[in-house]
Protein: USP domain-containing protein
Organism: Helobdella robusta
Amino acid sequence: MKGIQGLNNSCYIDASVFCMFAFNSTFDSALHKNNGGKKTGDDDDLLFIKVKMQKCLRDSIVNPLRRDFFVSADKVATLRSLLDQSLTGQRFLFEEKDPEEFMNAVLEDMLNVDPFLKFNTGHESHIHQLFIDKDNLDIDLTLTSVQQLIEISFFQSTLKLTQKPACLMLQMPRHGKEFKMFDVIIPSLFIDVTDLLQYGIRECTICGEMGVFECSHCFHSHKTLSSIVFCQACSKQYHSHNKRSHHQPQSIKTLFINSTPNASSTEKMELFAVMCVDVNHFVSFVKTGSHADSPWIYFDSMVNRKVADNVLIPSIRVCSFLPGLLTTSESKLKSTCLAIKSGETDNELMKRFLSDAYICMYRSTELMFYK
Protein backbone atom coordinates (compact mmCIF):
# COMPACT_ATOMS: atom_id res chain seq x y z
CA MET A 1 0.00 0.00 0.00
CA LYS A 2 1.01 3.61 -0.64
CA GLY A 3 -0.28 6.83 0.88
CA ILE A 4 -2.09 7.41 4.18
CA GLN A 5 -4.54 4.72 5.20
CA GLY A 6 -8.00 6.02 6.08
CA LEU A 7 -10.18 4.98 9.02
CA ASN A 8 -13.30 6.31 10.78
CA ASN A 9 -13.98 9.42 8.65
CA SER A 10 -10.31 10.43 8.63
CA CYS A 11 -10.25 11.59 4.99
CA TYR A 12 -10.22 15.29 5.99
CA ILE A 13 -7.04 14.70 8.03
CA ASP A 14 -5.45 12.33 5.51
CA ALA A 15 -5.93 14.76 2.61
CA SER A 16 -4.70 17.71 4.70
CA VAL A 17 -1.52 15.98 5.87
CA PHE A 18 -0.77 14.71 2.37
CA CYS A 19 -1.10 18.22 0.92
CA MET A 20 0.94 19.85 3.66
CA PHE A 21 3.80 17.41 4.05
CA ALA A 22 4.14 14.73 1.37
CA PHE A 23 6.22 16.82 -1.05
CA ASN A 24 6.26 20.25 0.56
CA SER A 25 8.55 21.78 3.21
CA THR A 26 6.63 24.97 3.98
CA PHE A 27 5.30 23.64 7.30
CA ASP A 28 8.43 21.77 8.42
CA SER A 29 9.61 24.38 10.92
CA ALA A 30 6.51 23.67 13.01
CA LEU A 31 7.63 20.05 13.41
CA HIS A 32 10.85 21.11 15.10
CA LYS A 33 9.70 23.91 17.41
CA ASN A 34 11.01 23.71 20.96
CA ASN A 35 8.48 22.73 23.63
CA GLY A 36 5.94 21.67 21.01
CA GLY A 37 4.68 25.20 20.37
CA LYS A 38 4.19 26.27 23.99
CA LYS A 39 1.82 29.18 24.57
CA THR A 40 1.66 31.51 27.52
CA GLY A 41 -0.69 29.95 30.04
CA ASP A 42 -0.16 26.33 28.98
CA ASP A 43 0.02 24.06 32.02
CA ASP A 44 2.42 21.12 32.24
CA ASP A 45 -0.23 18.54 31.27
CA LEU A 46 -1.20 20.41 28.10
CA LEU A 47 2.43 21.03 27.17
CA PHE A 48 3.14 17.31 27.59
CA ILE A 49 0.32 16.45 25.15
CA LYS A 50 1.51 19.11 22.67
CA VAL A 51 5.03 17.67 22.65
CA LYS A 52 3.59 14.15 22.14
CA MET A 53 1.40 15.39 19.29
CA GLN A 54 4.33 17.13 17.58
CA LYS A 55 6.42 13.99 17.91
CA CYS A 56 3.58 11.82 16.61
CA LEU A 57 3.05 14.07 13.59
CA ARG A 58 6.76 14.32 12.81
CA ASP A 59 8.07 10.83 13.63
CA SER A 60 5.04 8.60 13.07
CA ILE A 61 3.37 10.33 10.12
CA VAL A 62 5.48 12.84 8.14
CA ASN A 63 8.81 10.98 8.26
CA PRO A 64 7.32 7.56 7.28
CA LEU A 65 5.24 9.25 4.58
CA ARG A 66 8.36 10.74 3.01
CA ARG A 67 10.60 7.73 3.65
CA ASP A 68 8.28 4.79 2.92
CA PHE A 69 5.37 6.62 1.28
CA PHE A 70 2.95 4.87 3.62
CA VAL A 71 1.29 5.72 6.94
CA SER A 72 -0.98 3.19 8.65
CA ALA A 73 -4.38 4.17 10.02
CA ASP A 74 -3.37 3.63 13.65
CA LYS A 75 -0.80 6.46 13.46
CA VAL A 76 -3.44 8.94 12.34
CA ALA A 77 -5.79 7.60 15.04
CA THR A 78 -3.12 8.39 17.65
CA LEU A 79 -2.84 11.94 16.34
CA ARG A 80 -6.63 12.35 16.51
CA SER A 81 -6.66 11.03 20.07
CA LEU A 82 -4.01 13.56 21.13
CA LEU A 83 -6.00 16.36 19.53
CA ASP A 84 -9.05 15.21 21.47
CA GLN A 85 -7.12 15.22 24.74
CA SER A 86 -5.78 18.73 24.23
CA LEU A 87 -8.77 20.48 22.65
CA THR A 88 -11.72 19.88 24.94
CA GLY A 89 -15.01 19.44 23.11
CA GLN A 90 -13.51 19.29 19.61
CA ARG A 91 -14.06 15.51 19.20
CA PHE A 92 -11.52 14.79 16.48
CA LEU A 93 -11.25 11.07 17.20
CA PHE A 94 -14.33 9.77 15.38
CA GLU A 95 -16.28 12.72 14.01
CA GLU A 96 -15.95 13.99 10.47
CA LYS A 97 -14.78 17.59 10.36
CA ASP A 98 -13.58 20.11 7.79
CA PRO A 99 -9.88 20.26 6.79
CA GLU A 100 -9.59 23.88 7.95
CA GLU A 101 -10.66 22.82 11.45
CA PHE A 102 -7.87 20.26 11.56
CA MET A 103 -5.22 22.56 10.09
CA ASN A 104 -6.12 25.42 12.42
CA ALA A 105 -6.06 23.05 15.40
CA VAL A 106 -2.59 21.78 14.50
CA LEU A 107 -0.98 25.03 13.34
CA GLU A 108 -2.61 27.50 15.70
CA ASP A 109 -3.76 25.67 18.82
CA MET A 110 -1.16 22.92 19.09
CA LEU A 111 2.06 24.08 17.42
CA ASN A 112 1.54 27.83 17.86
CA VAL A 113 2.69 28.67 14.34
CA ASP A 114 2.69 32.38 13.53
CA PRO A 115 -0.22 33.02 11.10
CA PHE A 116 0.89 33.14 7.47
CA LEU A 117 -1.68 35.76 6.49
CA LYS A 118 -1.66 39.23 8.02
CA PHE A 119 -4.27 41.68 6.77
CA ASN A 120 -4.58 45.45 6.79
CA THR A 121 -7.63 45.05 9.06
CA GLY A 122 -5.43 43.62 11.82
CA HIS A 123 -6.87 40.13 11.31
CA GLU A 124 -4.45 37.20 11.05
CA SER A 125 -5.06 33.63 9.89
CA HIS A 126 -3.54 30.54 8.31
CA ILE A 127 -6.40 29.93 5.85
CA HIS A 128 -8.49 32.53 4.06
CA GLN A 129 -11.98 31.89 2.75
CA LEU A 130 -12.83 33.73 -0.46
CA PHE A 131 -16.20 35.50 -0.30
CA ILE A 132 -17.80 36.70 -3.53
CA ASP A 133 -20.89 38.90 -3.82
CA LYS A 134 -22.09 37.83 -7.27
CA ASP A 135 -25.20 40.03 -7.14
CA ASN A 136 -23.19 43.27 -7.15
CA LEU A 137 -20.68 42.22 -9.76
CA ASP A 138 -20.82 42.95 -13.47
CA ILE A 139 -18.30 40.25 -14.40
CA ASP A 140 -18.89 36.97 -16.20
CA LEU A 141 -17.77 34.22 -13.81
CA THR A 142 -19.06 31.26 -15.82
CA LEU A 143 -15.46 30.08 -16.12
CA THR A 144 -13.33 31.60 -13.41
CA SER A 145 -9.86 31.10 -11.91
CA VAL A 146 -8.42 31.34 -8.42
CA GLN A 147 -6.52 34.47 -9.52
CA GLN A 148 -9.73 36.17 -10.57
CA LEU A 149 -11.62 35.09 -7.44
CA ILE A 150 -8.98 36.28 -4.98
CA GLU A 151 -8.80 39.68 -6.69
CA ILE A 152 -12.59 40.08 -6.60
CA SER A 153 -12.77 38.88 -2.99
CA PHE A 154 -10.05 41.24 -1.81
CA PHE A 155 -11.56 44.15 -3.76
CA GLN A 156 -15.07 43.63 -2.40
CA SER A 157 -13.78 43.22 1.16
CA THR A 158 -11.24 46.09 0.83
CA LEU A 159 -8.54 43.70 2.03
CA LYS A 160 -4.79 43.89 1.57
CA LEU A 161 -1.96 41.69 2.83
CA THR A 162 0.55 43.60 4.92
CA GLN A 163 3.34 41.26 3.77
CA LYS A 164 3.91 38.46 1.30
CA PRO A 165 3.12 35.15 3.02
CA ALA A 166 5.24 32.01 2.90
CA CYS A 167 2.04 30.02 2.32
CA LEU A 168 -1.34 31.07 0.96
CA MET A 169 -4.16 28.62 1.63
CA LEU A 170 -7.40 29.70 -0.03
CA GLN A 171 -10.77 28.16 0.68
CA MET A 172 -12.99 28.40 -2.39
CA PRO A 173 -16.35 30.23 -2.26
CA ARG A 174 -18.95 27.76 -1.04
CA HIS A 175 -22.01 27.53 1.16
CA GLY A 176 -20.91 24.51 3.17
CA LYS A 177 -19.20 21.48 1.65
CA GLU A 178 -22.11 20.58 -0.59
CA PHE A 179 -23.20 23.80 -2.32
CA LYS A 180 -20.68 25.20 -4.80
CA MET A 181 -20.97 28.79 -5.97
CA PHE A 182 -19.15 27.88 -9.19
CA ASP A 183 -19.44 24.72 -11.27
CA VAL A 184 -15.82 25.04 -12.40
CA ILE A 185 -12.85 26.84 -10.83
CA ILE A 186 -9.48 26.84 -12.59
CA PRO A 187 -6.69 26.52 -9.97
CA SER A 188 -4.22 29.12 -11.27
CA LEU A 189 -0.73 27.65 -11.56
CA PHE A 190 0.66 30.86 -10.06
CA ILE A 191 -1.03 33.56 -8.01
CA ASP A 192 0.25 37.09 -8.60
CA VAL A 193 -0.09 38.79 -5.20
CA THR A 194 1.62 42.05 -6.25
CA ASP A 195 -1.65 43.98 -6.24
CA LEU A 196 -2.89 42.25 -3.07
CA LEU A 197 -0.08 43.69 -0.95
CA GLN A 198 -0.64 46.83 1.10
CA TYR A 199 2.93 47.99 0.53
CA GLY A 200 4.82 47.20 -2.62
CA ILE A 201 5.91 48.32 -6.04
CA ARG A 202 2.92 48.44 -8.40
CA GLU A 203 2.98 49.28 -12.06
CA CYS A 204 0.92 51.92 -13.84
CA THR A 205 -1.43 50.07 -16.18
CA ILE A 206 -0.84 52.62 -18.97
CA CYS A 207 2.84 53.60 -19.01
CA GLY A 208 4.49 50.99 -16.77
CA GLU A 209 5.98 53.50 -14.37
CA MET A 210 5.48 53.24 -10.61
CA GLY A 211 1.80 53.41 -9.70
CA VAL A 212 0.77 55.91 -7.05
CA PHE A 213 -3.04 55.84 -7.42
CA GLU A 214 -5.63 53.05 -7.35
CA CYS A 215 -9.15 53.65 -8.68
CA SER A 216 -11.86 51.39 -7.28
CA HIS A 217 -14.43 52.76 -9.75
CA CYS A 218 -12.32 51.45 -12.64
CA PHE A 219 -12.48 47.88 -11.34
CA HIS A 220 -16.05 47.45 -12.53
CA SER A 221 -15.01 48.07 -16.13
CA HIS A 222 -11.42 46.73 -16.14
CA LYS A 223 -12.07 43.64 -13.94
CA THR A 224 -8.51 43.19 -12.56
CA LEU A 225 -6.54 44.87 -9.78
CA SER A 226 -3.49 45.45 -11.98
CA SER A 227 -5.59 47.47 -14.45
CA ILE A 228 -6.74 50.07 -11.90
CA VAL A 229 -3.27 51.32 -10.94
CA PHE A 230 -1.98 54.61 -12.37
CA CYS A 231 0.98 56.93 -12.08
CA GLN A 232 0.12 60.56 -11.34
CA ALA A 233 0.26 61.77 -14.97
CA CYS A 234 -1.72 58.85 -16.42
CA SER A 235 -4.34 59.04 -13.67
CA LYS A 236 -4.92 62.73 -14.36
CA GLN A 237 -5.22 62.18 -18.11
CA TYR A 238 -7.31 59.00 -17.94
CA HIS A 239 -9.79 60.43 -15.45
CA SER A 240 -10.20 63.70 -17.34
CA HIS A 241 -12.67 61.92 -19.65
CA ASN A 242 -16.29 62.88 -18.99
CA LYS A 243 -17.28 59.27 -18.27
CA ARG A 244 -14.59 58.95 -15.62
CA SER A 245 -14.38 62.45 -14.18
CA HIS A 246 -16.45 61.42 -11.15
CA HIS A 247 -13.94 58.70 -10.19
CA GLN A 248 -11.94 59.29 -7.03
CA PRO A 249 -8.56 57.50 -7.23
CA GLN A 250 -6.93 56.84 -3.86
CA SER A 251 -3.22 57.15 -3.07
CA ILE A 252 -1.31 53.87 -2.88
CA LYS A 253 0.76 53.25 0.22
CA THR A 254 4.31 52.22 -0.52
CA LEU A 255 7.61 51.81 1.29
CA PHE A 256 9.53 52.26 -1.96
CA ILE A 257 9.91 55.85 -3.12
CA ASN A 258 10.95 56.61 -6.71
CA SER A 259 11.34 52.92 -7.52
CA THR A 260 10.80 51.57 -11.03
CA PRO A 261 8.69 48.43 -11.48
CA ASN A 262 10.36 45.53 -13.26
CA ALA A 263 10.07 41.78 -13.51
CA SER A 264 11.58 41.32 -10.04
CA SER A 265 8.88 43.56 -8.54
CA THR A 266 6.21 40.99 -9.35
CA GLU A 267 5.31 38.85 -6.33
CA LYS A 268 4.09 35.41 -7.37
CA MET A 269 3.23 32.25 -5.47
CA GLU A 270 3.22 28.69 -6.83
CA LEU A 271 0.36 26.19 -6.63
CA PHE A 272 1.49 23.00 -4.87
CA ALA A 273 -1.73 21.29 -3.78
CA VAL A 274 -5.47 21.27 -4.35
CA MET A 275 -7.83 19.62 -1.88
CA CYS A 276 -11.18 18.58 -3.31
CA VAL A 277 -14.47 17.47 -1.78
CA ASP A 278 -17.43 15.55 -3.14
CA VAL A 279 -20.26 14.20 -0.98
CA ASN A 280 -18.28 14.89 2.22
CA HIS A 281 -15.25 12.95 1.04
CA PHE A 282 -11.91 14.75 0.75
CA VAL A 283 -9.12 13.89 -1.68
CA SER A 284 -6.04 15.77 -2.84
CA PHE A 285 -3.98 16.60 -5.90
CA VAL A 286 -0.33 17.32 -5.02
CA LYS A 287 2.67 18.49 -7.00
CA THR A 288 5.64 16.19 -6.42
CA GLY A 289 8.43 18.71 -7.07
CA SER A 290 9.27 22.35 -7.64
CA HIS A 291 9.93 22.30 -11.37
CA ALA A 292 7.40 23.41 -13.97
CA ASP A 293 7.13 19.88 -15.35
CA SER A 294 7.11 18.09 -11.98
CA PRO A 295 4.45 15.33 -11.94
CA TRP A 296 1.20 15.70 -10.03
CA ILE A 297 -0.46 12.83 -8.18
CA TYR A 298 -3.96 12.16 -6.93
CA PHE A 299 -4.45 10.76 -3.42
CA ASP A 300 -7.52 9.15 -1.85
CA SER A 301 -7.07 7.57 1.59
CA MET A 302 -10.03 5.21 1.44
CA VAL A 303 -10.90 4.41 -2.14
CA ASN A 304 -10.93 0.61 -1.72
CA ARG A 305 -11.90 -1.78 1.08
CA LYS A 306 -10.30 -5.17 1.68
CA VAL A 307 -13.42 -7.08 2.63
CA ALA A 308 -11.78 -9.93 4.54
CA ASP A 309 -9.97 -7.68 7.01
CA ASN A 310 -12.30 -4.67 6.73
CA VAL A 311 -9.24 -2.56 5.91
CA LEU A 312 -9.36 0.58 3.80
CA ILE A 313 -6.80 0.76 0.99
CA PRO A 314 -5.45 4.18 -0.04
CA SER A 315 -4.93 5.03 -3.69
CA ILE A 316 -2.18 6.99 -5.44
CA ARG A 317 -2.52 7.82 -9.13
CA VAL A 318 -0.25 9.82 -11.41
CA CYS A 319 -2.05 12.72 -13.10
CA SER A 320 -0.14 12.92 -16.36
CA PHE A 321 -2.69 15.39 -17.75
CA LEU A 322 -2.16 18.07 -15.09
CA PRO A 323 1.14 19.77 -16.08
CA GLY A 324 -0.20 20.24 -19.60
CA LEU A 325 -3.62 21.34 -18.36
CA LEU A 326 -2.20 24.03 -16.08
CA THR A 327 0.06 25.49 -18.76
CA THR A 328 -2.29 25.27 -21.74
CA SER A 329 -3.71 28.32 -23.52
CA GLU A 330 -6.67 30.13 -21.98
CA SER A 331 -8.95 29.28 -24.90
CA LYS A 332 -8.09 25.57 -24.72
CA LEU A 333 -8.57 25.53 -20.95
CA LYS A 334 -11.97 27.14 -21.31
CA SER A 335 -12.95 24.52 -23.88
CA THR A 336 -11.97 21.81 -21.39
CA CYS A 337 -14.02 23.45 -18.66
CA LEU A 338 -17.05 23.74 -20.93
CA ALA A 339 -16.72 20.04 -21.78
CA ILE A 340 -16.70 19.24 -18.06
CA LYS A 341 -19.77 21.40 -17.39
CA SER A 342 -21.67 19.74 -20.21
CA GLY A 343 -20.59 16.24 -19.18
CA GLU A 344 -18.63 15.63 -22.38
CA THR A 345 -15.40 14.43 -20.74
CA ASP A 346 -14.69 10.96 -19.40
CA ASN A 347 -11.57 12.00 -17.45
CA GLU A 348 -12.87 11.70 -13.88
CA LEU A 349 -9.73 13.06 -12.23
CA MET A 350 -9.68 16.13 -14.46
CA LYS A 351 -13.35 16.66 -13.63
CA ARG A 352 -12.64 16.44 -9.90
CA PHE A 353 -9.68 18.80 -10.14
CA LEU A 354 -11.67 21.52 -11.90
CA SER A 355 -15.12 20.97 -10.37
CA ASP A 356 -14.56 20.04 -6.71
CA ALA A 357 -11.76 22.35 -5.50
CA TYR A 358 -12.17 23.10 -1.77
CA ILE A 359 -8.78 24.52 -0.71
CA CYS A 360 -5.99 25.62 -3.06
CA MET A 361 -2.51 25.89 -1.53
CA TYR A 362 0.23 28.22 -2.77
CA ARG A 363 3.80 28.68 -1.57
CA SER A 364 6.49 31.30 -1.90
CA THR A 365 9.66 29.53 -2.97
CA GLU A 366 11.69 32.41 -1.51
CA LEU A 367 10.04 32.45 1.93
CA MET A 368 8.96 28.84 2.54
CA PHE A 369 12.17 27.88 4.35
CA TYR A 370 12.37 31.01 6.51
CA LYS A 371 8.90 31.42 8.02
Q: What stands out?
A: Residues 213-265 form one domain. The longest strand covers residues 268-278.
